[in-house]
Amino acid sequence: MKFINSFFNNIFKSSDSGVLTSRNRKTAYFFLLPNFIGFFVFTLIPIAIAFFLCFVRWDFSNPMRFVGLQNFTYMFTDSTFRIALKNTIFFSLVAVPSTMVISLGLAILLNKIIKGVKFLRTMYFIPYITSMVAVAIVWNMLYSPSMGPINSFLRNVGINNPPGWTASTDWSMIAIIIMSVWKQIGYYMVIYLAGLQGIPSHLYEAATIDGANSWQKFKYITLPMLTPTTFFVSIMLLIGSFKVFTQVMVMTGGGPGRSSNVLVYYIYNQAFVYNRFGYASAIAFVLFFIVLAITIFQFKKEEKWVNYTG
Amino acid sequence: MSKTKKIIVYILLIIGAAGMVMPFAWMLSASLKTNVQVFEYPINWIPDNPQWHNYIEIWRQIDFLTYYKNTIFLTLVVTGLSLFTSSLAAYAFSKIEFPERNLLFLLYIGTIAVPFQVIMIPQFMIIRNIGLSDSLWALVLIQAFTPFGVFLLRQFFMSIPNELSEAARIDGLNNFGIFTRIVLPLAKPALATLAIFQFVFVWNDYLGPLIYLSSDSNKTIQLGIMKFMTQYSSDYALIMAASVVAVVPVIIIFLFLQKYFVEGIAMSGIKS
Per DSSP, what are the bridge partners of residue A65? Predict the structure, then answer.
């Protein structure tokens, strides 16, 4: 709100300050130009075109045809779209909370020690910076149902019928989720760690004097004081989870069958394999609206649970 | 905290860390084995007879050198261009008063929320129309002007006190002088953060190259290892060696510059 107010104030202010404004404006545009040209051509114009493409049928070779809302109504009857949407939501519902809980847990543990923090943090962080393609290839081998070390281990501890992981319709999403959580917890751990370090220690000291145990301190100090971090983390994770793609492409190709097809994988296929650019754009917009709705919903509920009194 | 508690914390953290690096250790060890040995169980972490020639073999089987060169070219050009253009734009958004400043900035941050998947199809059309599909420049153009860089640097430039730039102005520096002599030197940590983020993103990016780069001479390392995996799907050891070669540069860069990484992430988490 503050931002919008000052924005309008600025507009009204601009009319009365003559020469300086025009000189400033010139300099500002000079500084902005190199980036703005690229931003305009490769971000702003594409957004406008993307909106337009939602309402056409087009495959590059045949002329474009306006089809109104057909791309959107078609989605309701498209079973692959429904499966991809369902799988994406499943991914989100499982991967987001698990990542949050594990990375918070790790951050709390890491915050308790002094020696070796840097070394351990590095270990946890490495999966996040390495290429998704490479680690997905490695995990695929680890998951190999007949020979992979994971199932060899499971058989060794007495599980005779270990899951088929990426080769099984029941387990393919789970396999992708485990790997994705593993890859990203280091990043969110670092964010939580920064959040924990921002909690003033006198709060804990006061609680200790009052006789609070560790669980009470966690529940009544750590969690409430961390809500701004949790808010940020949950938004980032939710948005990211709806964009899951590379690991699906590399590990399962959306399969077996359609069991691990997700929205972005479906968009990619519709656009660049089947050349259905209109339909793919429409699905991409649905994705955008889901992400936007989640973000707005989170911000609306922010006041109820996020505590900014530091 | 009591001593036993502390030991338990350490044990938990070390077990967790082992789980995090286990896939990398397995990858490294498998890359030095023969195909038969790769899936042996119990895992032989240190191969008895390391097959170092696997690493020579992959460069022979597939044109890794070209993929490497392309990837290095892309990361350097995209990172350089985005540092250059983003820092200029961020200066205008933070240190120059002009009427449309907030409107334009709102436009920038508004688009950060738009997923890449929404604009990738129109971007592809535009690139095709200017005749740059299947060219590394296509990726340079779509990745070097992202609003994220402008946003990140602008946030940092805002924290540089205006008194500094005003004092410099009184001493006779113009905007360009203030930018190069005052703001940029002070913003080194933020520039380093953006550089590392861009470097890692471009090096690891898969979807972008997948859409644009079709001929072999233009492929990046990520497309290269995918190609390797599909062509030599049962050469497990070689695939692992190729993966090691693909991840090592980023890990090395990270180990040297992790300070900026961690600070950048902590900064984005707290200030949001």
Answer: A57
